[in-house]
Amino acid sequence: MSEDLQELFDTTIADDQRIEPRDWMPEGYRKTLIRQIAQHAHSEIIGMQPEGNWITRAPSLRRKSILLAKVQDEAGHGLYLYSAAETLGADRADLTAKLISGRQKYSSIFNYPTLTFADVGVIGWLVDGAAICNQVPLCRSSFGPYGRAMIRVCKEESFHQRQGYELLMTMMQGTDAQREMVQESVDRWWWPALMMFGPPDDESPNTEQSMNWRIKRHTNDELRQRFVDMSIPQAEALGVTFPDPNLSWNEERRHYDFGEPDWSEFRAVIEGNGACNVERITNRRAAHENGAWVREAATVFAAREREGSQK
Ligand code: FAQ
């Protein structure tokens, strides 16, 4: 019986069809998806903090309302993703408990501080840009609810990326001090953005199996290269440079060569020792605890509604 189920699963994957929540799936497939989707959901929710830091200090009402809408979108992305994880049998309260006790990861990128308003533009351009590069192939992920969630997420992320680039274009047409602020911000975010794609392929324990299961469609290094290639013309159009002396066009490979990110920094950040890890988790824990009364009230209200509808 279980051999038949395994065969059906393998054929579904080989035929590029989708696995749906009620289908049989290997335990490893379920566990890998819960890990990746939960990490992704946590990233969206924790990712509200760095930009949220600038909502009260945005330089105009227009910039404030754009930023507010973007940060709200990230909350929505987190919620679709937690829902996708729930279709695999995960419990949302348990995932949150794992996040705030440090047992589940979120993206390294959100452990860096946002020091200037230019960071809002650079996060839109480079961080959302890297997120899109990584997430567009996930729209074809073999697990149905994850792939479908990614379609809407990617549409919204594209809009975020454009707003970041537009903000930077505006600043680059301003004063020398504004141009310097943009360049300084790009210098700080470039390497952390490259680390978003995960460790190099030969140090990535999950890639091979996730590619076989068609959860991932490209390796970490392939997507990192794609991101470098697409970002360089955008930087030229903007009038900024990236802080990498090894960046150069390689005619033979028809790709840009680039330097090696500092992987010891990456490891330190995902182990909890980045500049803002403690602050991010402290804020998330406080929000969770302060929201306890809302969850209790909503549960009581839902129970009363159920009782009422049964009368
Ligand atoms: N940070 O074997 P691999 C956003 C972990 S976008 C922290 O290569 P895998 C939008 C990895 O989980 C950001 N941890 O793993 C936004 C694994 O952990 P384990 C979120 C990382 O899964 C924009 C270990 O290292 N996007 O939020 C990172 O095959 C602006 C070994 O790594 C996603 O999550 C990292 N950068 O590949 C929001 C996309 N990289 O097993 C607000 C979905 C790796 O030890 C503002 N995820 N790790 O527990 C993926 O595509 C994959 O999970 C990768 C990693 C590519 C991130």
TrEMBL record:
Q: What is this protein called?
A: 1,2-phenylacetyl-CoA epoxidase subunit PaaA
Instruction: Report the source organism.
Output: Rhodococcus chondri
Q: What is the lineage of its organism?
A: Bacteria, Bacillati, Actinomycetota, Actinomycetes, Mycobacteriales
* Record-linked InterPro entries: Aromatic_CoA_ox/epox, Ferritin-like, Ferritin-like_SF, PaaA, PaaA_PaaC
